[in-house]
Amino acid sequence: MRIRRTVLIPAAALATVLTAGGGANAFVEHKAQERVAEEARSRLGANADVHAELTDPLAGLKTLTGQVGTVRINADGVRHEGTSFAVDAALHGVSTDGSATSGSATVTVGYDELAERLPKPLRGMKPGTDGSHLTLSGTVGGLGIPVSVLNKVSADPDGLTVTPDSVRVMGQRMKLDTLTSLPGMEQFADDLGPRTVGLGQLPEGVRLTDAKPSDDGLALTFRFSPDVLRAADAPGGPSGNTSGDSGGSGDTGT
Asked: Residues 75, 86: contact at Cβ < 8 Å?
């Protein structure tokens, strides 16, 4: 489940570029939204379906005072290194100088994408969710028993931890060791983990705060520190790109 590169690009781009779209050099709301969307698309890829929205009342008029308020950015079909994912970001306290007071972004990797990146012993199982767990469904063992493994997903400083919680077999939920005690099933428990998926070194000021399965895929939530959301030309603000992983503008797919 190699997703490090999947999350680094939108995290870095949103932290350093999308806030610049808040300036927009425009004094009406729809022009400001168009500018934000353009800035997002330049980093997330020309093929991404990007939408931006200024959510505060009279946001367009607020630009005359140097304030924009809250900006939401949604992007579907973002691609990088053959992986497709969605980005949903919210920046708060956005000013026309390109800074913000706080922000977060959720990167959602679809279950079909995750299926292609499962560890070799679990290839062929189908990821999904039952509403609260990350599920892996398929047939296991020499008997071809249909099984759905219910996994807990948690975020920690080292990345994601996926821990098998229980299994559902023929409509019955049971403990994992009940299944793995059957002849020929011992290796199955070792294949399931728990597993920790490292995200590597995130850009400074960006931290993973949550990971959970959603209807659309595995959702990873990141928060940005105020320092990383300052305009590049503001006192103490970041200068240039905060991550060499994000590359230049244009399509990020390879």
From this structure: yes
